[in-house]
Amino acid sequence: MELTSTVFTAKAIYVGVIFAITLGVAAYSTYFERIFAAFFQDRVGPDRAGPFGILQPLADAVKMFMKEDFIPANSSKWLFILGPCLSMFTALMTSAVIPFGDTIDLGNGVKFDLQGIDVNIGILWVFGIVSLGVYGILVGGWASNNKYSLLGAIRAASQNISYELAMGLSIISILMMTGSLSTKAIVEAQQNGHWNILYQPVGFILFIICAFAECNRTPFDLPECETELIGGYHTEYSSMKLGFYLFAEYINMFVSGAVMATLYFGGYDYPFYETVVNSFGENVANFIGFGALIGKALFFVFVFMWVRWTLPRFRYDQLMNLGWTGLIPIAMFNVVWTGLIILLPAEFNLSSLASIGIAIAGIPVLIVGLFIYHSIAGGKKKKTALAR
Amino acid sequence: MKLSNRTKVLEQEELTLAERIYLPAIAGGMLTTLKHFFQKPVTIRYPEQKRYLGPVFRGHHILKRDQNGAERCTACGLCAVACPAEAISMVAEERKKGEETLYREEKYAKVYEINMLRCIFCGLCEEACPKEAIFLRHDKMVPVFNDRNEVIFGKDKLVEKMDDRYLRDGWK
Amino acid sequence: MQFWYFLTALTLISALMVVLSKNPIHSVLYLVFTFFCISGHYVLLNAQFLMAVNIIVYAGAIMVLFLFVIMMLDLRRNSPDSKTNLTKLAGAVVGGTVLVIIIAATRKINLGTGADNALYDSQTGMVENLGKLLYRNYLLPFELVSILFFVAMVGAVMLGKREAGERNF
Known about the structure:
The complex is a heterotrimer of chains A (388), B (172) and C (169).
Chain A: H1 2-40, H2 56-66, H3 77-93, E1 99-105, E2 111-115, H4 122-143, H5 147-178, H6 183-189, H7 196-199, H8 201-214, H9 226-229, H10 239-264, H11 273-280, H12 282-308, H13 316-348, H14 352-380
Antiparallel strand pairs in A: 1-2
Helix pairs in contact in A: 1-10, 1-12, 2-10, 3-4, 3-10, 4-5, 5-8, 5-13, 8-10, 8-13, 10-12, 11-12, 13-14
Chain B: H1 17-21, H2 23-37, E1 61-63, H3 78-82, E2 88-94, E3 107-115, H4 124-128, E4 134-136, E5 152-153, H5 155-158
Antiparallel strand pairs in B: 1-4, 2-3, 3-5
Chain C: H1 2-20, H2 24-44, H3 48-73, H4 85-107, H5 127-137, H6 139-160
InterPro entries (chain A): NADH_UbQ_OxRdtase_su1/FPO, NADH_UbQ_OxRdtase_su1_CS
Transmembrane segments (chain A): 12-31, 78-101, 121-144, 165-187, 193-213, 244-267, 287-307, 319-344, 350-373
Protein name (chain A): NADH-quinone oxidoreductase subunit H
């Protein structure tokens, strides 16, 4: 009984810590988004609230809470309230299965996993919750009783469904490499520098593109495209309900960064792990691993912002074209090539270096294949988009 | 029918494969923005840092005194007539005996008011003035006001202080 | 056991609300919630894979499309016309027949005295076991289903494809 309660308390603390980190990162993402936007444009950014403006998120929160909470007259009231709640809910649920770190020894032989819950369908859970994320937008957009909101919501729905396919196919390659759906097993298979990015460069590019689309981030932020749709699905929202939508977007960014780190960048693995274990003990090493994963996730948040302030928005038909005729065929090619990466070294007893070589050889093969398709299909019909 | 023979027919070429893959171009663009990330910001933080606005900037109005300290304004009203925004109003008064050191001419402005909400800082008053009495300072702006009571500037704010005289480069 | 009752009650209520609510959007949202409850039942049966697939496929994709279409059509405007007496009568006849068939079919079922503990395996619903079962014992049906999906996909592409010279937008 004693053991159960220790683990239970530790788990509760862990969940609280992850929750706090997620919310804190999301709050400060809004600040860093503005700061980075300023840096990319040779400006200074918010620097008035506190030293370097670090109290800006607090000021924003106060502003959000103080604003009038407006519900349009002909809206469907309960669904209008439900929308942002669903967005926030689904955004927060994903991090349950992400292994943020290895086991921690709590003393008395009690081992504790730095992971919310290790289910054997881990990555499917992430995938399922991501696919649910669109409900918040859809419900909120419809309940607003506004054409622009509805158009934004519908765009979000079709975009998410389209990019889920390519995302699922790129995850399948990862599953083939690991042979397990459990996120923990995926991370453990990548320990000691065998990061999946080395074996799955094409898969990673596909995944990050799909992650951009699923998070509704630029260049795929068509659901909230100001020039066409005023504010998109959150046109009618104000006060903290709007705040929830915006907050959910930043949480999604952080969580998808953590998922990318887990799937492709070795999770909590970092170089010189053995040295740290030998000189400081396993607990310290694993806590550094926890920090390494957070660091990797934050790096991806930076990439999200970097891309946002670099690329212009897609046109809607280009977006759909890219998803269906560009990414999905490439993802299917990647699945087949992954089979080659697994089978050839197993057949001829090659080293892991050889499989990295095969993986990288996949890129020129893909480009040549695209070129051949391009010259055949492009000759007949000028307007066929290849990877548009 | 062409008006000139300089019309150019723009032909958009079909994108090559390398352009259609887009990723190289995206990487190039991201490198460009990353370069800017590490550059020094060009911002001038205004209330703390002020830039020199030039010798012809039209800022705060000033009613000049002459070298003896007498007000130059004779309340002729030409500035008020010239003002396109009708921001200037004044009340004239005859100079009494013993006030020669205070006012240069026989008539002076007892009240001289500029409504700063109306003023557009065009400088026409400065040009209209025959006595070279009113100028718009190049080195000082009208301060921000928070109250309606503060927007009408009277003589207390407009007349030049003798210990803080306003001189332009050309006058020296 | 307590939780099972709660979940079942929730499932039934939300399933009833699908039929009873007047607004089609509400119906669809209740249906989504019903799928969640069914996923909860899968978890209680230790079939996590089915639960995830149920959420991804039904709640995450198919119901989104349902919602999508209903939002686009705006059914509220057309609803009075669709409820003539004839439709009501036809609906009652069809529904009543189905009810009779279901009752007749389930009446004879012997619910048994409980699971056989010797044959019980808690790991049946796990991904590995399910995969082995599908790809060994039921390979032919599985492949046939995939062909069915493939045909459906080709059909969807053919329907969605633009004819030469036609512009739809």
